[in-house]
Amino acid sequence: MRLAFTPEFRSRLDGLFEYIRDQSGSTTVARRTVTGILSRVSILRSYPDAGMRLCRDDDTDTGVMILILGRYIVTYVRTKDTILVTSLLDSRTEEFSELRNKKQ
User: What pTM does this model have?
Assistant: First the structure.
């Protein structure tokens, strides 16, 4: 299965790299974090159902899957032959709660 990344995901990954680099003072730490996320996301090629379906509060399916990677949450959608990785969220923010009730 093909793995593709949206511009939003790429932008968030770049932002995370910059944030970690600036906070830690280490490019190595930032690179290790980003590389770890990408490595763990790559499992979706072989196991596209490794994540969980994201449902709204009323239990309706959003069509979005989530893969939890520690404190980070990767969102993706699955088509017949492609896994489209759509976003990267920090589980400590309100943004994840808002995603659950967003209209697709």
Answer: 0.82
What CA–CA distances, in Å, run from 21 to 17, 42, 47? 6, 23, 31
Pick the CATH number of 2-100 from 3.30.200.20, 3.30.2310.20, 3.50.30.70, 3.30.70.20: 3.30.2310.20
The three-point CA angle 15-20-16 to 5° equals 25
H or E stretch at 67: strand 61-69
End-to-end CA distance of the chain: 24
pLDDT of residue 94: 57
Residue 8: C-alpha distances to residues 11, 57, 60, 66, 85 (Å): 5, 25, 25, 15, 9
